Amino acid sequence: MRPDYVLKRFAIFLLITWVAATLNFLIPRLGSRSPIEDKLMTQAATGGYLQQGVAEMVKEYEAKFGLDRPLWQQYLTYLGDVARFDFNYSIANYPRRVVDILLEGLPWTMGLLTMTTLISFVVGNLLGAFLGWPRAPRWIHYLMPPLLALHALPFFLLGLVLVYIFAFTFQVLPLYGGFTTGTMPNWSLTFILDVLSHAVLPAASIVLVSIGGWALGMRAMMVTTQGEDYTNFADAKGLLPKTIFFHYAIRNALLPQVTALALVLGQILSGAVLVEVIFGYPGIGTVLFQAIRGSDFFLVQGIVFIVIISIGITTFILDLIYPLLDPRISYQRG
Amino acid sequence: MAIQIPPDTTRVQADVLSVRDLRVYYHTPRGAVRAVDGVTFDIKAGERMGLVGESGSGKTTIALALMQLIRPPGRIEGGEVLVDGLDLLKLNAEQMRQRRLALIAMVAQGAMNSLNPVIRVRDQIVDALKDHGLKQTKAELAGRISSLLQRVGLGPQVADMFPHELSGGMKQRVCIAIAISMSPKVIIADEPTSALDVVVQRQVMETLRNVQLDLGAAIILVGHDMGLMAQAVDRLGVMYAGTLAELCSVRHIFEEPLHPYSQLLIASLPSLDKKGVFQGIPGLPPSLLNKPKGCPFRPRCPQAFARCETEEPKLTEVKPGRFVSCHLYTEAS
Amino acid sequence: MSVVTPAPGNSGAGAISLSPVIDTASSLRATSGERVTAVRGYMRRNMSLPVGLTLLAILAVFLVVGRFMVDLEESRPVSVMTLQPPSWELPFGSDRQGRNMFAVAVAGTPMTLQIGLIAGFLGVGIGATLAFVAAYYGGKVDNIIKSMVDTGLTIPGLMILITVAMNVRGGLGVTQMALVVASLAWLYPTRTIRSQLLTLRERGYIQIAQMSGMSGPEIIVREMLPNLLPYLVAALVNSTSAAILASIGLEVLGLGPFEAPTIGMTLYWVNYNAAIINGWWWWWVPPIVVIGTVFIGLFLVAIGLDEIANPRLRRTV
After folding, report:
1. Which ipTM did the prediction report?
2. Cα distance from C271 to chain A (closest Cα, Å)?
3. Predicted TM-score of the model (pTM)
């Protein structure tokens, strides 16, 4: 792999990070809405406190949170903080730091997403490959319509239905959360099984919806690859159908699918966020939901930033994997 | 006293490939397109035969049919393809698969894309060998690959390369190397040089000639470049509308073409000696969907007469080794 | 869930990779009889387009007829008795705040669809314009647009929408929501339409048209647009679908117009009140059925259009 390919990809990653950070900084400030003031006003209103003296409190808090300095200074401080993953304090959960709250939720989301993305990508593409293969068994084709119909739906929609059927009506799987409330997280087998059983429905919502998409795309790619000259030559060489299927057809059809994976990461993550909200799964999604409800601006900012960075990193990793799959790539302008 | 019988050098060589009345139709919603409509010829071991014709005359279809690579909606409707006495059309898919490359091999046009872009050259040579049941150690395979590459004039380092690192001519020669890797009896080359410049063309054709002499294999060269054919083949078959118009030695085609189509074809070739106006052949090839009765060339034939309209001529040997399907030569004289 | 990329996984290469309809230069003039057979053959092979349109039509009929059957004012809170299961007076029952759920469905669904359509149209409109500009001028202009789009698409749109929504004073109204979603909706259409234009430009028949003396605008209208049309329509369908999804997403998170009876807001209240666990099934089933219909319908239409535009994907008879 050529070094300039890696550098270029890394530079793109940094660019995206910077754009994200800047947007995250500017948009709130464009609203000329002081988060502190609003929060205090809301609290004052619901709590029935007197509203005089709030102005002084606001000034104090602003000084503490650094909101009273000129904009460019705030920007530079902000960039510096972000580089150290210092997202300030959570307004709603003061004095907890944003970064700590994030670190609690991140592993859950990453676990859920990695697992579901891998399963749906592998199973979906394999299914699509069989669908595009003329010698595939007939019954495979009957799988397609239901999977396609599911694919049209948002993740959380299926989530709602699955919760109703399996958690409420038949009560075979848990309704809510990442693990049974009240238990202390530990590494025992019971806890691990508990976690897994809580992950089944959220994961299923994502996987069942995503598979159809991969299958559809892969089927189309298989049609293309089978029309290619190298597949015909492979036939003329007298290769076993199995060899052609895996090493000629799938191997080449996979490349655009990997590209597509890099492109849909954002969508999958966004969809997963909503799934977590429905299931109360203790990942970034639920944290975000509660942060929004509590008007916790810094927490929301931190989440948005982390999400964008994660996608940037994953895209970067995929960019590095891609030349391994397609030897033509890093030799081009890439 | 033992009598030494000298080897019989006049023994007639057996036909290695015999095609009898081959028919390939493509079934479209509008009807059957008769791409190949009754083609018969024989080739002996070591012989080089060319198949020329306009686009759509059926020559590539014949090549595919011999390899049994015709895919739906095309179908081989009838005939026999005998290689060393074995009728390929009677084999099932797996049996045919085993014979491909081992008995009869093909080098296609468009070598640009004939190689799998994501696999190294050596793996593409080896996978064919493996799928034919060859079990060899890594070292033996490496040696075999090296010698194969050498026979087509490529260095051993090519084995580790990916196709996109090779030039067009090199890719085509890799395809030839693959085609000869199991020493087949028949090699079909479908326009092997059409995408290459003349210098590389010559290299590839020379390579083809060398390996063919080496193996003693018969070669069928499909194309439309008459100049190339003149240099590369012993016999030439002229295809028109799915049938053989004429089949004879390449010398006879150029010096004394019998079929009116061949005559017009030869006449249309530019010559270095004479200057003149380009002569094409007026008209268009007939629709293979609704083939009219009688001779398919009749609408464009300057020498057509009554019989040509009603009766389709059959390929007959009018002089030793010279076959024509034209009523001009089969009238009871 | 990005703003206007199609539903998750849909952008898998090939799924919506439309390429031009039959090349003008090489198409045979089909007789009208043949055309009818072709259409019928298409219908037999590929049910997507008709089924999709039928689903959407059924929904439309429901919404129109429903207006005459119920007083839309009852979609506001405190209109009827709370938590009533379905009955003759309340075909969809009522929720915890006393809304007539049937009124909510009939009144709120068009709002959601409206957001989707506005954002979808704006997205494709802006996107197509930018795509034409990029393809026409090429060079630096093209590079700038391309970079903007690529960077923008890597950033998950929902996150930006959340950031914007959180900072709008007083929360988002319906029209505001449409505009907010539209602000990101043009990214994907720009990319796809641009790449399609570039492919078209390279195709032989454009050059043939140029050489046979057609003028620029004539080429665009007579040669490129007919090939682009199914593609544009599919882009519109996808854009609308993604916009609806984005708006519902925002609403479920609690960033939508709180007073509006849109589908997303209904789901927000469903979640807030744990309606599933409490067994108030009539509250969440209709919104799910409606969204399901909308998304599946739009999806099938998009697939159907894809088959028209990309004959290679057609299954042979």
Report:
1. 0.86
2. 7
3. 0.82
